[in-house]
Write a structure and sequence with these properties.
378 residues; alpha/beta; Rossmann fold; ten-stranded mixed sheet; two-stranded parallel ribbon; 9 helices; 12 strands
Length: 378
């Protein structure tokens, strides 16, 4: 069948330790996720956070093995969180990216995924300027949705064999989009821009796709880049309808030693800063480039997508942090919020003076009333 809606080749998870760091199971709002904490983590030193979203018929353990992201977390000292999609939510563990309720802020699966991120941020020292999301296939498309609906949380996004924002709103139409491409990226760019609302900001994006992908056609990689390029133009105040097709700043042909050739497309902004990258891997089918055979849907002969992803993410911290929103904690969350500290902010001087005068007047009135009552007693 098809990957974004139903992948085959399921690999069962097994509990184990990965290297010296901790790979632990946690829960949020009845949703399980795995969290990798590198040995270099120290509570007094905030670290980056990577949200990694698996594809259909995968699970956190399998996706971690295939991407080897825990090993990269050890080297670069960041925390990785892998949410799990269950068969109860989708029969083959796909993220339900095509449902309208999962394409907006504050609802459905995006709300749960952001809740998981907020729980990790509550329990660990996380650098708020370096929170990222990436995924493969259905997970990649959900990463696109999170980039559009939560630009105030995620500093950059990574898309491996995924689709543009709101590529479709039904499972049936999703099949055709995957095989033939989606709507005009200029229209989807506007929808993504509108989804950002007053939280809009330039979104760095990195894309990976195999040229022989028969599950999600390579045209979708082009559309993802076109959509985000035009969304970024809207954020910058330019009308994408009046701008010519996006042209890469650089096109570089590369080869993996004893592996595949691939093309790297680099897109820079007007200040020559790298804003987006696209990697098309020659002859690669549906999968994670350069991944390990110990996971599913990987191609070890491709470029190391995980290394490229880590480098790109860490080079793109959020430049300015928006005002934080209140954290919503649903019933069933497995962590306890710290007790709020008493405010030490004093009211203005005039307010304090008024309070003191009022208190003195109330005391004087009370005493006078008491005296009058005392004189009436027999």
């Amino acid at each position: 069948m098809f990957s974004l809606l139903s992948l085959s080749n399921a690999v069962s998870a097994s509990s184990k330790r990965v290297r010296e760091g901790e790979f632990v199971v946690r829960n949020y709002n009845k949703r399980t996720y795995k969290l990798y904490i590198p040995t270099g983590y120290r509570p007094e030193e905030p670290v980056p956070l990577f949200l990694l979203l698996h594809g259909c018929n995968q699970d956190p353990e399998n996706f971690a093995r295939g991407t080897e992201m825990n090993e990269y977390a050890e080297r670069a000292n960041f925390i990785v969180v892998y949410p799990e999609q269950t068969r109860a939510n989708h029969r083959v563990r796909c993220w339900n990216w095509y449902k309208p309720e999962n394409q907006v802020r504050g609802r459905g699966e995006p709300r749960d995924l952001v809740g998981i991120v907020n729980q990790v941020k509550q329990d660990f020292a996380i650098d708020n300027r370096r929170v990222y999301v990436a995924g493969i296939s259905a997970g990649a498309t959900m990463a696109t949705i999170l980039g559009a609906t939560y630009p105030d949380l995620f500093a950059a996004i990574g898309i491996c064999a995924g689709l543009q924002y709101k590529a479709t709103t039904s499972a049936v139409k999703g099949i055709f989009v995957m095989l033939r491409g989606g709507p005009d990226p200029r229209m989807q760019a506007t929808l993504a821009f509108e989804a950002m609302g007053n939280r809009k900001r330039i979104m760095p994006v990195i894309v990976f796709h195999g040229t022989a992908d028969m599950t999600v056609a390579p045209i979708n990689a082009d559309q993802v880049i076109a959509q985000w390029g035009r969304t970024n133009q809207l954020v910058a105040g330019e009308d994408p309808l009046t701008v010519a097709d996006l042209t890469p700043t650089e096109v570089i042909q590369r080869n993996v030693t004893n592996g595949r050739s691939y093309t790297e497309y680099v897109y820079c902004d007007q200040t020559s800063e790298v804003l987006m990258k696209k990697y098309l891997i020659d002859g690669m089918k549906h999968g994670w480039p350069g991944g390990s055979k110990t996971g599913s849907y990987t191609d070890p002969t491709g470029p190391k997508a995980s290394q490229l992803l880590v480098d790109f993410f860490l080079e793109h911290p959020m430049k300015t942090l928006p005002e934080p929103e209140p954290m919503l904690v649903p019933a069933g969350a497995t962590f306890v919020l710290a007790k709020p500290q008493a405010s030490v902010t004093k009211p203005p001087l005039l307010s304090r003076l008024f309070q003191r005068v009022s208190k003195a007047v109330r005391g004087l009135v009370a005493r006078i009333s008491g005296d009058k009552k005392g004189k009436k007693r027999p």
